[in-house]
Amino acid sequence: MLARKPKLHVDEAVLKTCTGPMPKHVGIIMDGNGRWAKGRGMPRIKGHHEGANAVRRTVESCRYLEIPHLTLYAFSSQNWGRPQDEVTGLMTLFDVYIKKERQRLIDNGVAMRMIGDRSRLSPGLLRAVEGLEDATAHNSDLILQVAVSYGGREEILSAVKAIAKEISDGTLRAEDIDEHTVSDHLYTRNIPDPELIIRTSGEFRVSNFLLWQAAYAEFFVTDTMWPDFNEVHLRDALNSFGSRERRFGLTSAQLSETSEEE
Ligand code: IPE
Ligand code: IPE
Ligand code: MG
């Protein structure tokens, strides 16, 4: 079969200035939609709508750069506590995004998976999400995880409950639990941990995002509000990542010894 040529509307000139090495998994806390809108005298929902364009730009840029995994934090477990009209507006926006982006995601070889508590979504939205997951399941060029109704603590809690149940059912022994057991019970099972986490809007906090998986992630915070996030900001984050020494608890000298041995 001939390889599909993806249709990527990205600023190639900017993305070509990424110097590498590239992370295998990028997570993004897409923050600042409300402030973007407020600064323009618009309702908050307008910021969320504009944010959807930044999502498309970012997905296609990662696809262009051949980054294999991208996780976008779209709606947290705690965001359910926002005013009802904002919550409804955001859920409608997800539904619209799924319908509008479907063909583009398929054509570009992107597999979309939702991570988060599905039981809180309306039946209609859940059907739309599962429809898109099924339609893109065979794609493998970019795995796009969208975190909706997602909380890191909630995710760990549900893993703990599932593990406890296996122990009480007699299918798992407590002494056999290791890090892999926990990882394998998270929504992100089979996906490598994020190596780079970007947060927009200048906030230096993790807000319940990928708590277990981010153990050794590099962080990059930009003051840019999410709707304005583009190829330049992504390039800057990736180049910052590429220039860092990731030591994983070891010393610089140990790391250079290992790389000399290779
Ligand atoms: C991020 O933008 C999107 C969601 C959390 C749903 P915000 O809506 O948090 O925007 P700010 O932080 O209020 O500006
Ligand atoms: C984090 O943003 C959640 C998402 C981007 C979906 P929030 O705006 O909810 O985070 P806080 O309230 O500033 O910590
Ligand atoms: Mg926010």
Automatic annotation (TrEMBL):
<feature type="binding site">
    <location>
        <begin position="205"/>
        <end position="207"/>
    </location>
    <ligand>
        <name>substrate</name>
    </ligand>
</feature>
<dbReference type="GO" id="GO:0045547">
    <property type="term" value="F:ditrans,polycis-polyprenyl diphosphate synthase [(2E,6E)-farnesyl diphosphate specific] activity"/>
</dbReference>
<dbReference type="Pfam" id="PF01255">
    <property type="entry name" value="Prenyltransf"/>
</dbReference>
<feature type="binding site">
    <location>
        <position position="82"/>
    </location>
    <ligand>
        <name>substrate</name>
    </ligand>
</feature>
<protein>
    <recommendedName>
        <fullName>Isoprenyl transferase</fullName>
        <ecNumber>2.5.1.-</ecNumber>
    </recommendedName>
</protein>
<dbReference type="GO" id="GO:0000287">
    <property type="term" value="F:magnesium ion binding"/>
</dbReference>
<dbReference type="InterPro" id="IPR036424">
    <property type="entry name" value="UPP_synth-like_sf"/>
</dbReference>
<feature type="active site" description="Proton acceptor">
    <location>
        <position position="79"/>
    </location>
</feature>
<comment type="similarity">
    <text>Belongs to the UPP synthase family.</text>
</comment>
<feature type="binding site">
    <location>
        <position position="218"/>
    </location>
    <ligand>
        <name>Mg(2+)</name>
    </ligand>
</feature>
<feature type="active site">
    <location>
        <position position="31"/>
    </location>
</feature>
<feature type="binding site">
    <location>
        <position position="36"/>
    </location>
    <ligand>
        <name>substrate</name>
    </ligand>
</feature>
<dbReference type="InterPro" id="IPR018520">
    <property type="entry name" value="UPP_synth-like_CS"/>
</dbReference>
<keyword id="KW-0479">Metal-binding</keyword>
<dbReference type="InterPro" id="IPR001441">
    <property type="entry name" value="UPP_synth-like"/>
</dbReference>
<feature type="binding site">
    <location>
        <position position="199"/>
    </location>
    <ligand>
        <name>substrate</name>
    </ligand>
</feature>
<dbReference type="GO" id="GO:0016094">
    <property type="term" value="P:polyprenol biosynthetic process"/>
</dbReference>
<comment type="function">
    <text>Catalyzes the condensation of isopentenyl diphosphate (IPP) with allylic pyrophosphates generating different type of terpenoids.</text>
</comment>
<feature type="binding site">
    <location>
        <position position="31"/>
    </location>
    <ligand>
        <name>Mg(2+)</name>
    </ligand>
</feature>
<feature type="binding site">
    <location>
        <position position="48"/>
    </location>
    <ligand>
        <name>substrate</name>
    </ligand>
</feature>
<feature type="binding site">
    <location>
        <position position="80"/>
    </location>
    <ligand>
        <name>substrate</name>
    </ligand>
</feature>
<feature type="binding site">
    <location>
        <position position="44"/>
    </location>
    <ligand>
        <name>substrate</name>
    </ligand>
</feature>
<keyword id="KW-0460">Magnesium</keyword>
<keyword id="KW-0808">Transferase</keyword>
<comment type="subunit">
    <text>Homodimer.</text>
</comment>
<feature type="binding site">
    <location>
        <begin position="32"/>
        <end position="35"/>
    </location>
    <ligand>
        <name>substrate</name>
    </ligand>
</feature>
